């Protein structure tokens, strides 16, 4: 019997219309008569489409193309036209109002209803939205993402600093920027802000950029940022912030007068003045208003099993996908979890067994691919050497500079480095990291080798085309042979 939608009854209710929520809904109803509703207070498409992945990559690409052109004899590049770069970014985010009508149409085409508003659990299988109660026959999926972590620093909140939403949606380029953080958002934002003309100072509390990556990756990104004029202050944290005339002038506009940041380092305190302060200090779960207490759960990241069902809730009706479960806070991994979750919901609704790998998320434990679109790019999958050793694997590593015919043909200034982390017990790859221009496009071969557990002896027979950048795979395998003197 179909669910009674007029009474607010659906087979599947999904809170959050970001990439994870959209995919969970679509997979849960695909090829069936099941009904689903996406509950979304802002825009279908979520953070990724309008304030994160898409605008940031739209802002980064022109600087990368310009750098490549400048390294190519015979091309006489002028520079970046800021207005044109921002206009192209705006086209990708469907205008500054973030028109999501295309996504709404996609939902309709897939038989998914959309309810605008913030959803809240009000009991088992029950969701409240603006005074209306929705009831799920099979599943509720929480996919409400994350919000920026704003450190508790005196004066910081009152200074109305930029978050990643302002930086990706910037409407004007601040002359001087202090950027707090040394992670992925900070490295990417420093790259596009500096390529668009801002003088950027990064405050990094640790002693490396991209601290979770192979150390050579953060070092190469730091060197490149420094070369383009970014000042990086390691071991530095904001201790106090003051701003004259702080004003909410709108997303991506400079929020008032100059900001003074008192910076703590091991050597004492100094003061920096900037036109804008950007906070890129990680993400926090946004669960305080989700009503988790109504089903006996504490606030914070949700703990899920490998079918994406929330642990601590009986009856297999509550699931969590994407940033909210903190397994791998990346769009492609949230979508991966959502595909598994949707398939699990569908199978359970049909009383089918969860037989086969399709119903179990595994890649987001130790096989996660990621590309940091800084200049140079950092592409990685799986475990770093340090993480593999911590996990107790018997480890061998091979490294090589990416200096092959293909790379030198692509850019005269090509500089890159590659590293493989090998489990000597099984002769398979645990992880790989590549740094260099456009190495993101090289990553999927490594992901397939890691997930497919392809023995290195077999990889020898995967012959890279000549003269392609991917020939560095051959160099890596040769370096390993040379290490064995065979
Ligand atoms: C600047 C930046 C750049 C990034 N670049 C990349 C990248 O290049 N590649 C990559 O893989 N990842 C990138 N990420 C990470 C990526 O954006 C997230 O991992 C991804 O958006 C998570 O998807 P999600 O569906 O879990 O959450 P979100 O995209 O955050 O969507 C969650 C949705 O839930 C809605 N919501 C919130 N509360 C409620 C509620 N109570 N009821 C209903 N709905 C609610 C929100 O409005 C939102 O639309 C980037 C992040 C940032 C900040
Ligand atoms: N290309 C991509 O794949 C991409 C791009 C952007 C963001 N993302 C994802 O979005 C998420 C958020 O990125 P992010 O860069 O904000 O987080 P992150 O965890 O990568 O980096 C956070 C940085 O903030 C610093 N920090 C944390 N708390 C601080 C404090 N109180 N004071 C000063 N510094 C502090 C950390 O030391 C670190 O340098 C990550 O999961 C990231 O992978 C992915």
UniProtKB/TrEMBL annotation:
Entry annotated with the keyword Flavoprotein: yes
Required co-factors: FAD
Cofactor-binding details, from the entry: Binds 1 FAD per subunit.
Domain (Pyridine nucleotide-disulphide oxidoreductase dimerisation): residue spans on this chain: 368-472
Residue ranges constituting the FAD/NAD(P)-binding domain according to the UniProt record: 10-336
Pfam families: Pyr_redox_2, Pyr_redox_dim
PANTHER family xref list: DIHYDROLIPOYL DEHYDROGENASE, MITOCHONDRIAL, DISULFIDE OXIDOREDUCTASE
Protein name: Pyridine nucleotide-disulfide oxidoreductase
Organism: Nocardia donostiensis
